[in-house]
Known about the structure:
Helices cover 42% and strands 20% of the residues.
Amino acid sequence: MRERVVVGVTDAAASRRAVDWAADRAAGRGDAVELVSIVGGAVGVVGEGRVIDEALELTQHLLDREAERVRERGVPVETRVGRGNPVEQLIEASTGAALLVIGSDYRGPESGPARGPHGIRITAGAHCPVVVVPDLDMAAREGVVVGADGSAVSEAAIAFAAAEAERSGEPLIAVSTWSPVAIPLGMRTYPDEYLRNMQILTEESLAISLAGLAQLYPDLVVRSVVESSYSPDAVINRLAMNARLAVIGSHGRGPIARFILGSTSQQVLNRLATATVVVR
């Protein structure tokens, strides 16, 4: 069955990259694309009506132009202009979609962290996996990186990443990290046996998480990476610097927690190394 991929569209360069990413993936899978752009809601100021009317017209022109680029790839496309809060509107648009794709202004480490909270808020609240596409050239990249920690949402991230890697014929790089327990100041070092056992335990946990992939995807090349680190996000982004895609899990659950991303997910999105999918 043809799935629907929703793309949040603005006039920013990063938005064009998001549209390109979504169109390329949809073309390879036979999916359809819906381009959505949001114009702010009215507040009742005199003369506001004409401003909003002009904004709606310009926004529709933008969507028509982007839709034509999608059609050139042979992908069915629809457009929609929404009114109101962009975060709320895009979260609502994600209902029933296979993916929600948004752009990020992040251009690499020298540019500092991505600006603005909208991407994180949309990703935290969406009803489907969200792809955040940075303003980076990723044309020559290969591989799918996935973060794994043994949780249920991590299993979902692995399943998504493995399917993407199999479809594109690229290797899957599964990464898991561990950190030693905090010790009193009087202890200067950790026992070597303890550190070895932590490494072995994490390697075994990752192997269990990946165990079913060989049967599902016998030709898939899987590489496991286990490292000691207090910053799992830094490890994921380092490995993703040459990858086409990274996949991470969000631990939000329930009506309130669903709108809260885990700290690792937030840090990965703040310094994107590649197009990154957040899976629930």
